[in-house]
Amino acid sequence: MNSINVNRMTPYMFMAPAAIILAIALLYPLGYMVFGSFREWDPSQSIGEAEFVGLKNYITLFYDPAFRESTWVTLRFAFWVVTIEMLIGVGLALFLDRNIRGMSFLRTMFILPMMIAPVVVGLMWRYMYHPTVGTFNRFIKSMGFEGVDWLGQHALSSVIIADIWQWTPFIFILSLAALQSLPKSALEAARIDGATPWQQVRYIKLPLMAPVLIVTALLRLIDAFKVLEVILVMTEGGPGLSTEILALRISRTATEFRELGVAAALSTYLLLILLALTLAMFAYTKISELRAQRIQAAAEEGY
Amino acid sequence: MLNILKSAGIAATAVAMMAISALANPYKDYEGTTLIVNFPAHPHYNAVMKILPEFTKATGIEVEVDQLPYLKMRERQTLELAQEEGDYDLIAYVVFSKADYVYADQLENLARYYMNPKLSDPNYDPDDLIDGYVYNIGFAGGNKGYLEGKTGSLFGIPYGSETSILGYRKDIFEKHGLEVPQTYDEMLDIACKIPQLEPGMGGLASRAASGHHASHAFLLHLAPLGGRVFDDSWNPIVNNEAGVAAANALKQIVDCGPEGASSFGFGEALGSFLNGDTAMFLDTTIVAGQIDDPSKSKVVGKVGWALHPEGVRRGSQTGGFGIGIPKNAENKEAAFLLMQWLTSKTGDKLVALAGGNPSRFSTHEDADVNAKFPHMKTFGEALKYADPDWRPIIPVWGKINADLGTTLSKVLTEDLDIKEALDGVAERTKGVMEEAGYYTW
Fold this sequence. Notes:
The structure holds 2 protein chains of 2 kinds. Helices cover about 75% and strands about 0% of the residues of chain A. Chain A is mostly helical. Chain A has a single domain (about 65-300), classed as MetI-like (MetI-like fold). The mean pLDDT of chain A is about 85. Chain B is of the alpha/beta class. Chain B folds into 2 domains: about 1-160 and about 320-385, Periplasmic binding protein-like II (D-Maltodextrin-Binding Protein, domain 2, 3-Layer(aba) Sandwich), CATH 3.40.190; about 165-315 and about 395-435, Periplasmic binding protein-like II (D-Maltodextrin-Binding Protein, domain 2, 3-Layer(aba) Sandwich), CATH 3.40.190.10. Chain B has helices spanning about 1-25, 45-60, 70-80, 95-105, 110-115, 130-140, 170-175, 185-195, 210-220, 240-255, 265-275, 290, 330-345, 345-355, 360-365, 365-370, 375-385, 395-415, 420-435; strands spanning about 35-40, 60-70, 90-95, 140, 155, 155-170, 200-205, 280-285, 305, 320-325. In chain B, the strands form 2 sheets. In chain B, strands 1, 2, 3, 6, 7, 8, 9 and 10 form an 8-stranded mixed sheet that branches. In chain B, α2 crosses α14 and α8 packs parallel to α10. The radius of gyration of chain B is 22 Å and the shape is globular. The N and C termini of chain B lie far apart (about 65 Å). The model of chain B has no long low-confidence stretch (mean pLDDT about 90).
């Protein structure tokens, strides 16, 4: 009897260390953040000394026009960045998935931007966008056109361009890896059936790559919500609040306004938005998988 | 040659210091102590690093410096000061940290050190310290809680403080027969004339980027134009006539400024002046060293200095750093000795000669300092008008400042109506103040 119990316990005992580490490393900081978000917490106080204010931070934020603007900026930024990066990244991968001489060298070159520290990327682009001495405006002016006020009137687009430059390679290498691991038989069959290259991409490659692409898009989306350094260095959120994405607002709330409680509440909001997006994305995959299964089942029945 | 002179000066002072210490040595009990201090990476503190060995030589007290970028420094200090026992014996703090640190009871009141005959140097001459700086940076608990007043006392000493000054291109002004502007009207007029006289050149380089940059530039004009952020009962009055005039001045300066001026931070504004893209620069005195440095500047020898122009009154900014002793410091008395030495007449002159910003009137008039830095006399004159109340130093200022800065940035880039924008700031500020308890009485 006892030995049966022990046997049953064994797997749990082996899992225990991992579970404990997970609880400490993941849940504790998260709990700390949520706990702090219910308090009016100044950085000079320890969390215990901070006054409990219930949902006040959340309610204040909800009605705060700056927070709403920030959220809107973040959503727009994330949408454009992920969409354009996916298009270019996957496109590049489809285009370069062939045997070209020096391919491995090219691939390394392509992923270089990703390896540069974000602060450096920010500084680099800030100077390239500089109205008078920047590379872009000098080039545009040498062609005889008016200079563009990159970080002034077109700040959000300029920031989006910089992010695309840095992170498209990430999508590119993941898509390329996915492409190269596709089953050769399916492609061969398609070719024998006379599928054009476009049809191969549309009906064979993209659907087979879909699981990887969804995860890739999700990773980029999560990252896009948290970009901080590049924007901080390039525009500091300006002009006005036009590039102040949530991560930047959180950082300013904590350091400039010295309101740790509000910053924690902001982080919780950000977490909730991301969670909702992630769940929606997984739900979508699940539904399309089920649909595919139904179609397959129906097709098999038809035999 | 200058270097030789400088080292000779330092050596002579050091010898003098040693001669004094040979008579009686107030530092004896603290010999061999190692102080850990936190200084920012900043031109003034780079000069301080050069003179610290002199302190160790004169006193036998070692100093270990943790030099951080100044925004990082504040974060670090917030963590350090909240601990039971801190790492730092002496810290340099930015002026707006004063409110937070004193309010959280994290800085030593300096009274008991100046009262202690074993520590306090009778030749220190505190009256020689620049009034505006002392009240702005070191003083707390007086009028409005952060100004000079009967109820206040001293928590820090200004060190590496700065005021605003107008730099102008002598060659350009001469070429077009322009007079150096004395008033705001003259300055704004010239600022907008320059782009016509010198195509491609901006009038006046100013900070204007969203956030604290725009806010700083606005406040710079607010005080001389007769405005304040709050009235005496803490009601926001940024949206009154003077406020609108200050915002108008800022807008005019940016519109007549160099290309892309609306996204300039301090670095870009200074850069455009150093690069010769603008004819005037109205900002902190700390830039003087860089303007005369041929490796950084294309305008060496072409820049003249004048007082911050007068609006309805004179009022230049006060800012920069002070030094104070944390409540949780380990070697408070030795830290006080270092603080006293650095800000003494000897220390102040040494740091000025090494390229720092002096905190004493006498240093600004000193012959050696003036021989090396001829602009020092104008700077000394400017200090008489340094306004300690050009911006409020209260704990909620960070939030109000950010709102003011982003709103002004919208005025500059999105053509928001100035009066409406400032009304909005005033209304939101009122809410922040209400919540912080300023209208309890």
